[in-house]
Amino acid sequence: MRHCASRASIPASLLxxxxxxxxxMTAPASGRAQILLTQDEALRLAFPPPTEIQRSTAFxxxxxxxxxxxxAGEDVEVKERVVTYYVGVRDGRAVGxxxxxxxxxxTLPEVVMFVLSPDERIERIEILRxxxxxxxxxxxxWLDQFEGRPLDENLSVKRGIVNITGATLxxxxxxxxxRRVLALHRVIDPLGSREARGxx
Length: 200
Known about the structure:
The model is unreliable at 7-31 (pLDDT under 50). The chain has one domain (2-197). A 7-stranded antiparallel sheet has the order 1-3-4-5-6-7-2, sandwiched between helices. The two termini are 14 Å apart. The protein has helices spanning 39-46, 62-72, 140-143, 168-188, 193-197; strands at 2-6, 34-35, 52-59, 82-90, 93-104, 109-116, 122-130. The protein is an alpha+beta fold and 200 residues long.
């Protein structure tokens, strides 16, 4: 796996239609699309100044993609080979890593930012864009239940994640995205924490 890093500032005009892999997903035009945050706005919520944001790209081997699929679970699609992520650095120390995931809810996509802590737990979730009817968007209170969760069997609508009444597809889409991001993060190990601890 190769990594490419950049400290260039992030243009506010970018919406962040980047899957964890950084691949763009073309969505049909819709008058009901909700653009809630730009990529730059979301990153600044996660890493406010004076935290520096470092953009990096990892290039995964097929073996690493397969490993991520195994970690994410059989009902989670993982096909990313190029993964873009953003590391927040403050006082010379990494404080978190942000990923952007694009996935379909029912027939239309949403863009979600996941911020992971150095100990591989979900620290923050922000919805940047939602193109399904607004009543199906996950409310902030529901998203709060992901805070502090690692990648384990309880990160599932069937187990530790409460469903959204009337918006089951949204609940499943966000939960699967969380598992995908955590799995890719573990494989990439952008902070070198697992390697330092001697964990696979």
